[in-house]
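Quick one:
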Amino acid sequence: MRGASRDALAAAQASFEEQIGSLPAGAGSSEVSEGLFAVAALLDREPSLRRAFTDPASSPDGRRSLVDSLLGQQLSPLPLGVFRDLVAARWNAAVDLREAVEVLATSAAMRAAEGDGSLDDVEDELFRFERLLEREPALRAALTDPGLPADRKSALLRDLLSDARPTTLRLLEIAVTRRHHGSLEHAISELTRLAAQRRERYIAQVRVALPLEPDHETRLAAALARIYGREVQLQVAVDPTVIGGVEVRIGDEVLNGTVAHNLETVRRRLAG
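Output:
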């Protein structure tokens, strides 16, 4: 999302936080989340509505009135207010509005999890499910099969994640049953990123040859926090191909201290 659409989403997120900021932690968030997920599903089914809600030829008040007339009786006041703010903004493309609705729905679900103290568990479960998809190509194939009905995919997830937090299950159900840009893995990584953002910390994906001792994890997290100026959450994956050392990826940045990387650097210097 770029330009006007990015700015519109940022403004809507700020407005959402302001609307529910005076409520107890998590209060109203589940209501907003489910309401906006329903709106996202509607926008998926009705591209003409996406265009009407983002029509630059209409006024912001006109688009708000359209929301009120179509959804005023279906949505409760909180999600209705959030969506009215969204349609009043300017969007580069109609599909950006649909994406923004789902981002805000997800953020609201994360806020609800933060309120009940389960956000850390949700974040960890999302990460572990992402690793599971990497190890089980048959599972990924089933969950991305366009011929498999959505209810079958949801049932498969419920069987696999019977012990998971309800928020984790709900977010993964949305990820595997709704249309989205990019791969399923990208969608789940984005969920993990939003969970980290909710806690105002970075996610560091760490690859090591052997499991780290708890004190090593603590020292690594503290060192990264000093570098980036904010708390860093480690997600450690054991990968025998690392040989030795540590590879850390934060967003698009890679800090590679593995033996294999160091050897390759030496080889390139000798060759040069």
